[in-house]
Design a protein that fits this description.
The chain has helices spanning 2-30, 39-49, 69-79, 91-105, 118-127, 134-150, 153-163, 173-181, 190-199, 203-208, 213-225, and strands at 58-59, 165-167, 170-171. By secondary structure, it is mainly alpha-helical. α1 packs across α6 (134-150), α3 packs parallel to α9 (190-199) and α5 (118-127) packs across α7 (153-163). The termini are far apart.
Length: 232
C-alpha cells in the first residue's frame, strides 16, 4: 500500500518535471532560433480548418530592426507600460485588474481588464491553449519566469511581436501591417501602430469591426502615451 502511494506521488512529480524540462529546453533553443508555429497558432489554424481544410494562418518572421519603433512603443503603451522594469509579472497591475473585474461582476458598466504582461502573453502563445484555468495560469507563470531567466527583454519582445495575434489567422507585425495597410511592418506610422496595438486584446473582433468608435478613441489615447514608452 505504501509503495503504491509512493508511485502515486512520484509519477505525477516526474511527469511535471519532465514537462518543465521540455519547456526550458525549448525556450533555451529559441534564444538564438526563431519559433515557427506556436501552440496557440496551431490551435487556431485547426479551428479554421474545420470550416476550410485549406485555411492557413498568415505569419512572416521579421527581425526586431525591421519592425517600426512606432509599433513597439504603441504595444508597450497599450499592453505593458512597465515591461522594461518588471521581471515577467506585474503584480500591481494584476491586482488592479482583479479589483476592476470584481466591480464588473457586481454590475458596473466597465470593460473586463487583463493584467497579463507581454512576457505572460508570450508564454501562453508559445506553449498553451486559449482555455482558462488556475492550472493553466500556474503553468503560464512558470514559463514566464523561464523566459525572463533565459532571454533578455529585447528578445522576448522580438518574439512577441512576431507571434502575437492581430486578427483571424493574422500573426505577427509583418502579417498585420500587410493585412490592414498593405505595407511592411517597418513603415507603420504612429496612428497605424496605435490601432494595431489596441486590437491585441480582441484581434478577431476588431478585424471584423475596424471602424469601431472605441478602437479610434483608444488609439488616440495610445498615441499620446507612445513617446513615454521605454523600449528594450
Amino acid at each position: 500500500m505504501i509503495k503504491k502511494l509512493k508511485w502515486f506521488i512520484i509519477v505525477p512529480i516526474a511527469i511535471f518535471l519532465a514537462v518543465q524540462l521540455y519547456f526550458f529546453v525549448q525556450i533555451w533553443w529559441w534564444v538564438d532560433h526563431n519559433p515557427t508555429m506556436t501552440a496557440f497558432m496551431r490551435e487556431q489554424q485547426a479551428a479554421m480548418q474545420e470550416k476550410d481544410p485549406k485555411a492557413r494562418v498568415q505569419q512572416q518572421w521579421v527581425s526586431y530592426q525591421a519592425i517600426s519603433a512606432n509599433l513597439k512603443r504603441a504595444v508597450i503603451a497599450s499592453e505593458d507600460a512597465n515591461f522594461a522594469d518588471h521581471e515577467g509579472v506585474d503584480w500591481e497591475a494584476m491586482q488592479k485588474a482583479y479589483e476592476h473585474n470584481q466591480e464588473k461582476k457586481k454590475g458596473a458598466k466597465t470593460k473586463i481588464h487583463g493584467g497579463s504582461t507581454i512576457t505572460q502573453q508570450l508564454a501562453k502563445n508559445l506553449f498553451l491553449s486559449g482555455s482558462r484555468s488556475y492550472l493553466r495560469k500556474g503553468q503560464e507563470l512558470i514559463i514566464t519566469y523561464m523566459l525572463e531567466m533565459l532571454m533578455d527583454k529585447r528578445r522576448i519582445f522580438e518574439i512577441y511581436l512576431n507571434v502575437a495575434e492581430f486578427g483571424r489567422g493574422i500573426y505577427g507585425a509583418e502579417a498585420a501591417a500587410r493585412h490592414y495597410y498593405r505595407i511592411p511592418a517597418s513603415k507603420l506610422g504612429p496612428e497605424q501602430a496605435a490601432r494595431l496595438a489596441v486590437m491585441l486584446p480582441r484581434p478577431k473582433y476588431f478585424d471584423a469591426h475596424r471602424e469601431s468608435a472605441y478602437l479610434a478613441r483608444r488609439a488616440g489615447i495610445i498615441m499620446q502615451r507612445m513617446n513615454s514608452a521605454e523600449l528594450p
